[in-house]
Amino acid sequence: MKLERISTDNAPKAIGPYSQGIKANGFVFCSGQIPANPATGELVTGSITDQTKQSLSNVKGVIEAAGSSMNKVVKCTVFLKNMDDFSEMNAEYAKWFSDPPPARAAVEVARLPKDVGIEIQAIALL
């Protein structure tokens, strides 16, 4: 099985020993994306809606750089700093996917990179 690294300017650069995404065996595996503007590196702060929108924009950047699209996403994992943000995150998240939406898990975590409110990872078909 051949692994191919995905790298794009449409998502934040990897800040450690990982890839933005990997293509393997007909799938795209997108690393967790936080609400950082890829052009400036600045974090999007404020509402969880704004943070969700930026995180999903970053996911989209990686998925599209791999040659796939958001309508081919089959699984997402959403990490929330505060589960009280679930409804607001869910409302924005729903705008990004067609029917049927991908399978998903959403979990509250103690802490996320750079103390952001959300991180989203995805798996898509090519």
Q: Would you kindly provide a brief summary of this structure?
A:
A 6-stranded mixed beta sheet has the order 1-2-3-6-4-5, covered by helices on one side.
Question: Overview of this structure, please?
Answer:
The structure is a single chain. This protein has one domain (3-125): 60s Ribosomal Protein L30, Chain: A, CATH 3.30.1330.40. 21% of the residues lie in helices and 29% in strands. It is α+β, with helices and mostly antiparallel strands and 126 residues long. The mean pLDDT is 97. The longest helix is centred in the middle third of the chain and has 18 residues, at 48-65. It has 2 helices and 6 strands, in the order E-E-E-H-E-H-E-E. Helix 1 (48-65) packs across helix 2 (86-93).
Number of helices: 2
Sheet with most strands: strand arrangement: 1-2-3-6-4-5
What sort of overall outline do the alpha carbons produce when their principal axes are compared?
A: globular
Could you give the distance between the termini? Answer: 15 Å
Range of helix content: 10-25%
CATH fold name: 60s Ribosomal Protein L30, Chain: A
Structure summary, number of beta strands: 6
Mean pLDDT: 97
Query: Which class in CATH terms?
Result: Alpha Beta
Query: What is the beta-strand fraction?
Result: 25-35%
Return the CATH architecture.
2-Layer Sandwich
Summarize the main sheet: 6 strands, mixed
Taking pLDDT < 50 over at least 5 consecutive residues as the criterion, the unreliable ranges are none
The run of helices and strands is EEEHEHEE
